[in-house]
Amino acid sequence: AIAGGKQPNAKVARYLKSTESKLVEGAKSSLLLRGIRCSDAMATVLKDMRAMKAPYAKLLTKNNVIVPFDDEGQQSLEFLTTKNDCSLFALASHNKKRPNNLVLGRTFDRQILDMAELGVSYYKSLKDYGGAPKKRIGSKPMMLFVGDRWHLDHEYRKLQNLLLDFHRGDPVEKIVMSGLDHIMVFTITDGVAVPGLDGDPVPVVHQRTYYTKLKKDPSGGKTPVPHLTNSGPDMDFRIRRTQYASPDVWKASMKQPTALKKKVKKNQTTNMFGETIGRLHLDRQDIDKRQGRKSKALRIAGKIEAEEEKAALEGELERERGEMGDEFKQAYGFAEEEMER
Predict the structure, then answer these.
(1) In whole angstroms, how far apart are CA 26 and each of 84, 120, 197?
(2) Residues 214-250: pLDDT tens digits?
C-alpha cells in the first residue's frame, strides 16, 4: 500500500515489484547525461558510450545544472538515477577550468557510492572507424588492464573496479566463444606532464577497443586464433578527482545474501587439478573376528591344515610318552606296562 493506505493499481504494483531487491541482479543500466556546458566532442563521447553499452544505456540530451562533487549535485544525480532506474552514470561537461571532463560513477542503495573525474585528452569516435566491423548489441567485452599501477596503486585499483562494473554488461555463468567479439585494453603510461600544473607527472590511461574475429589456427590446432582490428572508440584520459566509498559503506555494498552463499561441505576438498577429494570417518573395525564367506577350496585347505595339526600333536604326545617310559624303566628296572600286569 502507498501513502494514505490506498492500494496501488496494477501498473504501479508491477513497477514496485520490479524495483524490489533480487537475489541475482541483472545487467546494470547506465544514465548518460550532459553537464552545465557540454561540447560537441564530449556529446560524441556520450553517444558512443550509448552505442557500446546498448541496450543497457539511457542518454539524456538536455544540459543539466549539476556539479557532481557538491552535495546538491549529488542529490540531483541520485534523483535522476533513481527515476531512470540506473545504477551507473556518466556526466560529460566542458569548461575553461576543466576542459573535456567526464565523470563516471555508480550508486548503492540509491546513494552515490563511487565517482571518478577524468580529463579526456584524446578521443577517436566510432565514426572515425567507418568501415571497421562493430560489436554486436548486448555482447560482453573482454577487458585487459596493462600496467603495474592497476594492482599497486589503491586509487587506480578502485578505478579498475569501476571500469569493470561500468562495461561488464549482463552477468552470465557461461559464454559461447563466438560471442567474444571485442576487447577493451586499458594501458597506463607514466611521465606525462600536465600543462599549468606543478609536481609529478600524472599517469595517462590509454583506452583502445578492438574487434575480435576468430579464425582457424594455421598450425592445425583445434582452438581458433583471434585476429584484432581497430574498431573504436579510443580514448586517452587522466584522473582529476575521485570520491570513493568509505570502508564501511564499501563493505555493506559487497555483502551478499545468505541464500547465495555456498554451503561449506565438510570433509570435501578440491585439489589443483579440479578433482574432488572426500574423507570418510569410520569406527575402528576388528578384521580378525569378522566371518567372511569361504569357498570350497578354502574349506578343504582348512580341513587338511586341521588334520595336519592334529597329527603333529599326537606325534608329539607319543614321543613324550616314550621318553617318560624310558626314564621309568631306568629308575625301577622294569617297564610301567609290566607293573600293571
Answers:
(1) 16, 30, 43
(2) 888 888 888 888 889 999 899 999 999 999 999 999 9
